[in-house]
Every structure is written in C-alpha cells, then in structure tokens.
Amino acid sequence: MTGSINVIGYALATLGPAIGVAMIFSSAINGIARQPEARGALMGAVYIGFAVVEALAILGFVLAFVIR
C-alpha cells in the first residue's frame, strides 16, 4: 500500500513545478511581447528559472522512490 501512496504523493508534488514552469514562460512571453528588444536578457533568466523549477520536480521524483 505504501508504494501507491508514494505515487499519489509524487503526483500531487508535480503540481507545484508544473505551475511554476507555466508562470515562468507566460511571464517571458508577456515580457517579450511588451519589449521585443529585451528578449536576450529575459531568456537567460527564463532558462535559469526553468532549471531550478525542474530540479525541484526531479528531487520530488527521487524522494518518491527513496522513501518507501
């Protein structure tokens, strides 16, 4: 029974990173639409933010299997 509870916990834990990635890219699209010349500066911050948020998702994935 604990295995299925871990999977449910991981499924709930992925909601945070999914919302974070959506917010990062929606803000980037909004910012680029407002100031197209700032695209280079924005994309650097977007890639760093995306990497941090995805690292949290991978950490949650690993912890779902470690904690049994």
From TrEMBL:
Residues 9-67 form the V-ATPase proteolipid subunit C-like domain. The chain crosses the membrane at residues 7-29, 41-67. It is a multi-pass membrane protein. The record marks E54 as: Reversibly protonated during proton transport. Keywords: ATP synthesis, Cell membrane, CF(0), Hydrogen ion transport, Ion transport, Lipid-binding, Membrane, Transmembrane, Transmembrane helix, Transport. The keyword Protease does not apply. It is found in: Cell membrane; Membrane. Gene3D superfamilies: F1F0 ATP synthase subunit C. It holds the Pfam family ATP-synt_C. Signal peptide: none annotated. SUPFAM superfamilies: F1F0 ATP synthase subunit C (SSF81333). HAMAP family: ATP_synth_c_bact. Belongs to the ATPase C chain family. Key component of the F(0) channel; it plays a direct role in translocation across the membrane. A homomeric c-ring of between 10-14 subunits forms the central stalk rotor element with the F(1) delta and epsilon subunits. This is ATP synthase subunit c. The gene is atpE.
